[in-house]
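Deviation from plan, reported transparently: iron/sulfur cluster complex.
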Amino acid sequence: MSEIALSVNNLVVEFPTDSGPLRAVDRVSFELERGTIMGLIGESGCGKSTVAFALLNSVPTPGQIVSGQVDYPGVGDLLKMSDEAQRLFRWQHVAVVFQASQNTLNPLRRIDEQIRELATAHRMRDPKALLERADSLCRRLRLDSRRVLHAYPHQLSGGMKQRVGIMLALLLQPDILVFDEPTTALDGLSQESVLQIIREIHDEEGLTGIFITHDLGIVSEVADTVAVMYAGRMVERASSHTIFSGPKHPYSQALMNALPRLSGDPHLARGLRGSPPKVIGDQFKCLFRDRCEYRMEVCDQSEPQLIQVAGEDAQVACFLHGKEVERVSV
Ligand code: SF4
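Because the crystal trials were delayed, the predicted structure below was used instead.
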């Protein structure tokens, strides 16, 4: 039986605005199985990066986790831990590789000095073991450890800094690694090299992770399962194979239709009209309805819940699935 590494329940994150609290993450729930990578996709501003911050209880101010649980089985609900317990928890149990890892590196310290500081922050008396692991991880990540560990961040290329970010994230052997758009700022070659390394670590060590991106091509290469977010809500979850071979939610379908074609007419790729709404407070209706070509009366009157699609390994939040409704033209 599969083991659950992370369970998120009814997570709500809000940011205050002059018009009222903006709902960046709206009752998001999911489980992450150990040894799998879940791709979290959606347009910019859909809340996927806010979910990443919430997994470490580090939502940037003035954002706030209003309700929900972030439960790491065997450890407990992160949101109920003391500040000191949370500080020790981060990086040891869950670590994040951000889009611009160079921004998380201290420009005034050599990489090996930053590793020593990490050892001190995590109460390790002797940083030697950590430096030895850094040396071995560097080789794994195809970095020249003698050069990289003694370098200042500005002496490394963008691709090297991103691999250093992955090395630092792996250093304390966390249970879960969250990749937040880790390849977006890289050129094509560096991007492919970083993806290959992630795939290798996943295949050889059973890496458990969440890969956040707006790039469907990338997610199809690394993810075992995929969750689609729209306007703060999770609207579809399925295995990677299922979602790429037949997305159920009209928004997921639109994302796939927007992908450029490698064969046939390239103009068949269709952009998605309109933009996602800014959600202020509770909205008990489908948030995709203004952009949906299948909109029905019920979509304006109630909120579709994420339900299991009969006979498939997919969950979808859309009235087209699992409920008999009369379709009306819009
Ligand atoms: Fe479209 Fe209605 Fe489904 Fe929303 S619930 S995606 S508006 S069909």
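The pocket of iron/sulfur cluster is lined by residues 250, 286, 288-289, 292, 294-296, 299, 304, 318-320 (CB under 6 Å). We consider this an acceptable substitute for the interim report.
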